[in-house]
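In response to reviewer comment 3 from the previous cycle, which asked for concrete evidence that the modeling workflow produces usable outputs, we include below a single protein chain processed end to end. The sequence was submitted unchanged, and the resulting structure tokens are shown without manual editing.
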Amino acid sequence: MSNSLTDGEDELLRLISCGDEAAFLTFYRRHQGPVYRFALQMSGQAEIAEEVTQEVFMVVMGSASKYDAKRGSVGAYLYGIARNFVLRRLEQERPYLTTLDDPESEYSDVAADGGDALAELTRNERIESLRRAVLALPPAYREVVVLCDLHELEYAEAAAALDCAIGTVRSRLHRARALLTEKMRAEERCAV
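The workflow returned the following structure tokens.
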């Protein structure tokens, strides 16, 4: 008899499809953080990220047996599910309106931890500016930046998550990076 706490991902999904709660808990603990971060980076809203994360794992509970390792990794499978839920939520919400613009947002008051306060403030402003720029990208470009640059997925894995060709991931990522560079340079010129 196998121990569900040490089995591979395929075996965990098989056990989940049979109703094994320990397998689900192990699987959830392994993958909840990356799924949540992906949803947060795609939506910019913690509330959406929490709901999407919950919905992803509800899908896993109900259809773990549908996972096909030939189509991609477990991570790509989960990112693909999360992507669909995030895009649906963003269609329901006003596009690109994020909590980054909300003064009560968890991102709005990043405090310096000592040291050079001006350098820390400048760094935080640049990071915040980049977050806003990423969130302002059209979803097709934003998702490749989040997957490849922030989650460090390989192109093949990102392609599996997005259900597209590797070349499409490469071209979208190239265009997204160009758009981000353009936005960041424009913002720097305006700040001077």
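Confidence is low (pLDDT under 50) at residues 1-7, 95-103, 105-114. We consider this sufficient to address the reviewer's concern, and the full set will be provided in the supplementary archive.
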